[in-house]
Specification:
Layout lengths: L10 H14 L13 H10 L12 H17 L6 H13 L8 H14 L7 H14 L10 H8 L8 H17 L104
Helix pairs in contact: 1-2, 1-3, 2-4, 3-5, 4-6, 5-6, 6-8
Length: 285
């Protein structure tokens, strides 16, 4: 049985070997190269790279070596407009590895190789880091990826393009869920700010009732204090808001002062502020 790993060979030869390998393992992929070029070849290879995840005939070392072989192609192939979609697709496959034969540690090691093998200023590394948090949380190895907030910022510092506000919100929500699930969601250190009642220090929080203050949109995931929850994009967590454009959803009737989403603003005690309402006698405009 051949076990593929990093070798100094031509990228075209690597792709051909990968096609042949997965074809021999019974995957739905031909051995012939795609007429559409390298990106399409790799797209099809990534599409079947989980073929061995649940195969008892293929040991973990072989699975890891094969995945690293794909990593080697991703690292040396010319950057194009399709590179990011390939990385995202590969990450999605690896995110499911912990559910197959306890391959979480394998997936985390492979992701780590890819993350550190790409240029530090490459914005698409965000997707890899996000998946590393996902996988590490499932196998109890969060500390292997996440140290503290400062380290997180330095990790993504200089990325071009930088992560969007929405991407940072998604990452911070995932991080808080992962930390809590792994009993790592507590700290009295301002820089890590899991608990804080001091506005200047509450930049990040993973505990709803303790994020009292925040003026940074992407960090205010939770808040139960009306004046201080200025931003929130998580429906069930935006308990209060005094900023109309930012209180998008409300699930507590008495506290829905503003809303622009039908069927969400059921009640309002502020006339001319309740744009939508499903209760006629409480519809003010």
């Amino acid at each position: 049985m051949n076990v593929y790993s990093f070798m100094e060979i031509n990228i075209d030869s690597q792709v051909e070997e990968l096609r042949l390998y997965f074809n021999e393992k019974g995957a739905e992929i031909s051995v012939e190269r795609s007429s559409k070029g390298l990106e399409d070849d790799l797209h099809k290879i990534i599409g079947v790279c989980d073929t061995n995840f649940n195969s008892a005939e293929v040991n973990e070392n072989e699975v890891e070596s094969t995945l690293n072989y794909i990593v080697s192609v991703l690292m040396v192939m010319p950057l194009s407009e399709k590179t990011e979609s390939l990385i995202v697709a590969f990450c999605e496959k690896l995110s499911k590895a912990p559910q197959s034969r306890n391959l979480g540690p394998v997936a985390l090691r492979v992701l780590n190789v890819l993350f550190h093998g790409l240029p530090e200023n490459l914005g698409m590394r965000y997707h890899i880091y996000y998946t590393m948090i996902q996988v590490s949380g499932q196998i109890g190895q969060v500390a292997y990826v996440f140290k503290d907030v400062d380290n997180l910022k330095n990790t993504l510092k200089g990325a071009q393009p930088p992560p969007s506000t929405e991407q940072m919100q998604q990452l911070l929500r995932l991080l808080h869920q992962t930390l809590l699930a792994n009993n790592m969601g507590y700290s009295t250190v301002p820089e890590q700010c899991v608990y804080s009642t001091v506005p200047e220090q509450c930049v990040y929080s993973t505990v709803p009732e303790h994020c009292v203050y925040s003026t940074v949109p992407e960090h205010c995931v939770y808040s139960t204090v009306p004046e201080h929850c200025v931003y929130s994009t998580v429906p069930e967590h935006c308990v209060y808001s005094t900023v109309p454009e930012q209180c998008v959803y409300r699930t507590i009737p008495e506290q829905c002062v503003y809303s622009k989403v039908p069927k969400k603003c059921v009640y309002s005690k502020v006339p001319k502020k309740c744009v939508y309402s499903t209760v006629p006698e409480q519809y003010h405009l």
